[in-house]
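Supplementary Methods S3. Complex input for the BES-bound model.
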Amino acid sequence: MKNTMTKLFAVLTLMAFTVLACQQEQKAPETEKTATSDPHSFSRPSEARGTHLDLELYVHFDRKELEGVARWTVEAAADATEIVFDTRQMHIDRVTVGEAENPVDFTLGEEDPLLGQVLRVPLPEYRKPSDKINIYYRTLPEAAALGWMEPEMTAGKKLPFLFTQGQAILTRTWIPCQDSPGLRITYTAQVTVPGGMMAVMSAENPQEKSGDGVYSFRMEQPIPPYLIALAVGDIAFKSVGPRTGVYAEPVLLDKAAWEFADMENMLTTAEGLYGPYDWGRYDLIVLPPGFPFGGMENPRLTFATPTILAGDRSLVSLVAHELAHSWSGNLVTNATWNDFWLNEGFTVYFERRIMEALYGLDYTNMLELLEYRELLDEIEYLGPESPDTRLKLDLAGRDPDEGMTDIAYQKGAAFLKMLEQTAGRERFDAFLKAWFDKHKFTSVTTEDFLAFLRENLLDKYQLEANVDEWVYQPGLPGNCPVPESDRFSKVEAQARAAMEKLPDTSGWTSHEWVHFVRNLPKEISPQRLQELDRAFQLSNTGNSELLAAWLETAIRRGYLAEVQPQLESFLTSMGRRRFLMPLYTALVDTGELDLARSIFAKAKDSYHAVSANSVEKLLDEAGQQ
Ligand code: BES
Ligand code: ZN
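Predicted complex, serialized as structure tokens:
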């Protein structure tokens, strides 16, 4: 059975691949940027590519090392002489071919600080097509994908924890692979961990600890390598619905299951919008606070920060977001990181549709307006003429992380909303459903989407839309939908009046609080901030979004001295980049570089490399000015 499935998927992947290749031929040369020309991968998939991975790994917490073998099933063109993989921050012990494990002479290229080292494996002529390429390797302790958390950095404080973060180009630091989002693979894994720990992956998962520390996984649907993920620690499982559940450290499990009780509803709502969920189960794991993101959409198992455990379910839109990626991103994937808005813009739009269906338009409008303001700030920060404010990016030679701005997320979602308004919701929903259905398990470019859009929506209904301006021009087009929220208008009035009187906050959600804090007048005095703080205990809020907004306002309005203990404790107790960057930036902007440096020195070891590197860069650049 397993073998038939594997073969079936190999065939499907090959078909998908052929479809992509054919589509490419019909296009103008400048749009030929699909699977074969990813500027962030060394691989040459048209010559030879890995289609299936069998991974065997041992997790060594003592040396912060993964050790094992990646066995690749390879599909090669008749005249291919080698297969090329991406690697970075790892040691390759040996490479062999086939079950006989015949050694082959591999070569490793020069280290590129961003892309790593190319691994070239010659394909011997006598190789049978079924022969796997076996790469024996060890990761380095500094491998950027790997978050090795000491026991003190976990909730239970007894056992260490490991999680991986593959997106965008970090999977190559823990698995030798062809690390491009334009390529899809199936995988199995056998992972051996120390006794008493559980391993989970972006695959079919255990719900209980094994007696011997050995766990087996299978991911039958083809996924791009950035979605391969692993977490190991003192992990337990609790079901919240027939197809949904939560993994967390035992001390957090009940709290997490309560917070995310709506997961099953979200799943059925999402299916009602854009078609069946194709991945089997949908679970979520709450990671230690060192996780650098809010959430990561690893298939079947979203990875999430514990900072969304607000105790009042106020931050669950993040779950809707990561769930939505099961369609936009995981089912239909951006072919290169230049097309990142296809992943994130679609997902933000979809997330809002789920939130609207479950919690109503009023609530969703507030979220949208908060994020619209963030988009305006982002455009001001990047500069309205900056090429980085275009939806279609050009990230060749740069870290794809630089494309992770509100442009992809919010301008992307606004573009789709504009299209929705142009076509009407009913037509647009049918169009999106068809888009997902026709492109499932493939990777697509911006140009693929635009062609599909013209044919299946604009031309079909004879509609006009300034599509090229939205996608290829910088800034925000004049017909950008501006979200409105009555509740926020009232909050703004209260914020303006906050110099004279305390706000009437009855019935406020945490979103209203965040909006209030962000809209306090620039000239508000530290004394007045202190009065607000005393009245509403803002510095002690358990809502991480509100705390981050409040602390930033406090720093920028001269109220730092009073909130310094809370600021230090926040910055040293979690590593989520969305919170770290604005707060360190506010410190730098207000001449508090020394304080920023001393907090960073204490916190650094508990941050994941993704966050530590971003903060370090910020502080270094500030030091040079
Ligand atoms: N896929 C992203 C996270 C990501 C993007 C990691 C690019 C690495 C490179 C994830 O879906 C995401 O967008 N997370 C957001 C939360 C979301 C609710 C906007 C985050 O972590 O802040
Ligand atoms: Zn996302």
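The radius of gyration is 24 Å. The domain at 502-624 is CATH 1.25.40.320 (Serine Threonine Protein Phosphatase 5, Tetratricopeptide repeat).
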